[in-house]
């Protein structure tokens, strides 16, 4: 059974699961496990790992339209080096501070592979789910896509050697990996959104998941997909659009809202909000420039 | 740096860390990572693993005197077998139901070693910390100690072979591993406790941690330490007391309270509450039958 089949099995078993975060009373709660082999390429600093692991959970809180309250993380490594551990904690704390949450610690575990499990909680009385998108709605994304794809290219270029001329690439890659969880945007968009989720598995897969939950389709214009310059700088021209739509791990918000609310939503959102297309009926499917957009993306290892 | 040194480093860095759970407004939050090599002996079922991992976090909520609200868990394994995964989820859900909490899902991760990261949240307006014990207070433990030590002995006896006559041992071991988190007891004891924590690292280490946080000492009577029959049944007579006081992983509550409150606290607590000794001054140290009780215990791997 692959991870997606397993998730479907769990959704059926647990009625509270299946959105970006679970809801309990006025709280949302979400947890993520990341590990070195699949999530932290050689060259990723522990500061970046702390930022990114906790940021991934904060992004799920954002996707529910909630305020981020607090986060914890379990840090597992073969050995505890004080410099690495403090760097991790500072990364985790800084990403929490960025979104107004408290980083309140966690657990340590001796473990063969560097592994992080982070959990974030948030609060809201105005939840936004993946369901709720209606044909005719506009579909938008925050920020730009492709940061993580660009970062991975830079990490790969630098390899894991300490060569002097790789340092620039590693520094840029780490900076790209330190994304800003869209908590503030999620809060303001919650007032307008009919459906919302984060793009952690890539835009294509997010659209398929929104379509599944909302029983709708999407028509997307490729030239409206906002792509970071960092990706166009490092990737082959003919790979850019594919990477931006399927690589994922960008942790932007994908949101649907009434066309008539679009300008009002833009005016209160603290980041760029790009309209990339429209919600259509389920029968019309999910298309990019008129061609079917496959449910392809990064399945988190 | 070993795990304890690393934890001390983090306590200094994070002012909200250092008790059984972190506190954010009226919420408590705690996270634990467990993995196969050190926490789930061969023969541990996935149902037991789900129960135990989530139970460990619920025990930390109990130790703060809080109501248990919800829990999530990240499940990591080399492959996702649907029977194993459902068994895990049912164990996690059952332990939550036992204490009135909701199990609301989590995350999946492909990982070489079976690993679980669980997080629980709770609520209270009447927190109990590790600090607050005063010389003259009685010190008590809930339930009995030695369940996990007994279970490990039974797991070891059975080995990892599927021999027919090992099944009884494995069944008993799994049952012992499914402890009841002391959430209800923690809630009622919160009305009386001057200090409280759980015994996950063993009674001896818990007393040292309480002494450190409360700036006190303890005098403990060995013959008042409540030991489960399961341990006396399987362990050598001369090892029983040492296992009961240092093995840990029993997830009972260690609580200090005014002597004059002892009977009232007993009358409202839903489990046996054994007075094992008294709080003394820091100068008097931590003693078991008059002999220094070493800060020895199980450091979670």
From TrEMBL, chains A, B:
GO terms for biological process: thiamine biosynthetic process; thiamine diphosphate biosynthetic process. The keyword ATP-binding applies. One of its GO terms (molecular function) is thiamine-phosphate kinase activity. Residues 134-284 form the PurM-like C-terminal domain. Mg(2+) 2 binds at residues 32, 60. It holds the Pfam family AIRS. Pathway: Cofactor biosynthesis; thiamine diphosphate biosynthesis; thiamine diphosphate from thiamine phosphate: step 1/1. Mg(2+) 1 binds at residues 31-32, 107. Mg(2+) 5 binds at residue 201. It comes from the Archaea. ATP binds at residues 106-107, 130, 200. Mg(2+) 4 binds at residues 20, 30, 60. Residues 18-123 form the PurM-like N-terminal domain. It catalyses: thiamine phosphate + ATP = thiamine diphosphate + ADP. Its EC number is 2.7.4.16. SUPFAM superfamilies: PurM C-terminal domain-like, PurM N-terminal domain-like. Catalyzes the ATP-dependent phosphorylation of thiamine-monophosphate (TMP) to form thiamine-pyrophosphate (TPP), the active form of vitamin B1. PANTHER family: THIAMINE-MONOPHOSPHATE KINASE (PTHR30270:SF3). This is Thiamine-monophosphate kinase. The gene is thiL.
